[in-house]
Design a protein that fits this description.
By secondary structure, this protein is of the alpha+beta class. The chain folds into two domains: 60 residues, 434 Repressor (Amino-terminal Domain); 126 residues, Ribbon (Umud Fragment, subunit A). It is built from five helices and eleven strands; from the N terminus they run H-H-H-H-H-E-E-E-E-E-E-E-E-E-E-E. The protein has a seven-stranded mixed barrel with strand order 1-2-7-6-10-5-4. Strand 7 and strand 8 form a beta hairpin. The chain is globular and about 50 Å long. The relative contact order is 0.14.
């Protein structure tokens, strides 16, 4: 049984609709639909979903244990050691204004960071246009397989070749609206047909965790 099957089963048993679950955990009904239909299996809201449905998170994610969550709220469950790993650094984002950047793909290496997304990658930030949220020299981690929600920071690639790091304000009526990371610039609105990709920014990582090609 897949994650999608387990989620569908739990929602049917609990009598919870896609719309109700989405509203309960703060995501769109489309996001819940994608999870239920196997269009995505990685979502940072799984903890909230399990909590809202009052089911066992381990069962939802992996199928281990029982569906019902009978564990007391104040009891701490050991689920294993913190995982180690690295992800690829795909380049350097040379920041311009309003979160837009030029890509320097000559910069590479790896970042000491664990991700469950097999397609995760990092970009080094150069420039201060997103200070104080993101400092020059830090890395942003991108997890393309996680569906971003309103309020999340995202990497936006437009079909005319622009790259931006923004905060997703909303997506509705075939329109995206983004705000700047540090609120120094006005929001921008893009039609769906102007957008090539929107990818979830999961973390901001200090430069001490960078490994250049000679250290790998």
């Amino acid at each position: 049984m897949s994650l999608a099957d387990r989620l569908t089963l739990a929602m049917r048993i609990k009598g919870i609709s896609q719309a109700a679950l989405g509203e309960g955990v703060g995501v769109s009904q489309t996001t819940i639909w994608k999870l239920m239909n196997g269009k995505t299996s990685s979502n940072r809201k799984l903890y909230e979903i399990a909590d809202y449905l009052k089911i066992n998170l381990n069962w939802l994610v992996s199928g281990d244990g029982e569906m019902e969550n009978n564990q007391p709220k104040n009891e701490i469950e050991y689920i294993g050691n913190i995982k180690e790993g690295t992800i690829i650094v795909k380049g350097e984002a040379i920041m311009g204004t309003d979160g837009a950047f030029q890509m320097d793909e000559d910069f590479n290496g790896r970042l000491k960071f664990h991700s469950d997304d097999p397609h995760a990658f990092a970009l080094k930030v150069k420039g201060d246009s997103m200070f104080p949220r993101i400092n020059s020299g830090e890395f942003v981690v991108i997890e393309p397989n996680i569906v971003p929600c309103s309020g999340d920071e995202v990497l936006v690639r437009t079909k005319d070749g622009r790259n931006m790091i923004k905060k997703l304000e909303f997506h509705r009526d075939c329109v995206y609206r983004f705000t700047s990371i540090n609120q120094d610039h006005p929001p921008i609105t893009l039609d769906e047909n102007q957008v090539d990709k929107i990818m979830f920014v999961s973390a901001i990582v200090k430069s001490a965790r960078y490994l250049d090609v000679h250290e790998i």
